[in-house]
Fold these 2 entries.
Entry 1:
Amino acid sequence: METNTIKHMIEQGLADCRAEVTGDGTHFEAIIVSPAFAGKNSLARHRMVYAALGEAMRSAIHALSMRTYTPDEHAAQTK
């Protein structure tokens, strides 16, 4: 699976989302920023991303490491 495909799937599946995805074809890392994460804990955020990726999480993607942020959290990280 291509990183651009994963990026597109995440961005289409989460409202107002921005994703940066890197990886080697089976193992991937993602930074995901979405206002939909507001008020959600880490587990709930990851489940939202897994839902956006659907069947690909069970077949084409062997491992996905992710950091999930609201826009405000991400802005604080980049200061």
Note: DSSP finds three helices and three strands in the chain.
Entry 2:
Amino acid sequence: MAEEVVAEQAESKPKSPMIKIILAVVVLLLLVAGTVVGTLFLTGFFKPKPELTAEEKLAAGEQGADAGHGDKKDGKKDGKDGPPGKLTKKSPELTRFDFNYLQLEREFLVNITGSKKVMSLQVAVMTRYDQRVVDNVKKHEFALRSVMMDVMRQTVESDIAKPDFRVELAKKIRDSMNSLLEKYEDFGGIEEVLFTSLIVQ
């Protein structure tokens, strides 16, 4: 009889550690699951996303339309990963586009056609597209300087007297720069050319 009791106790002992291990694993899994759910809850994962206002929807639509302007006639997308997107900044009323400026360091000095006068310019460019446009301008600065000087050399003395001479010259320079960038990078992106200094003497 004593041998049977000892045998039963020997058989029941291994079951006890196995139950403890299973309970420990279950408790550990519950702790991990609780931690994950708690973290997601605290970071706002379960909160509903706010709806866009009419202005934000309109701005998002403008961005999509602007991205479509970069398509070439042959159907290729601009740039290696598509055209640069416009930079945005938040405002209480609506989404506004952020501006990027780049001053070209060296001045431009050209002779005016049919005159002994010279024109000296310092130029900055403005874009609302991302940093890739600024990087492309820096990358192709020598070629851009060449086409800009070609445009400036077409100026005659009578052009200088026109009231909108600066505006017209800036547009011509901008268009020539964008054409060159489209040739090399499949996207221009320069929206304005600004003269930080213009001297004719």
Note: The chain has a mean pLDDT of 77.
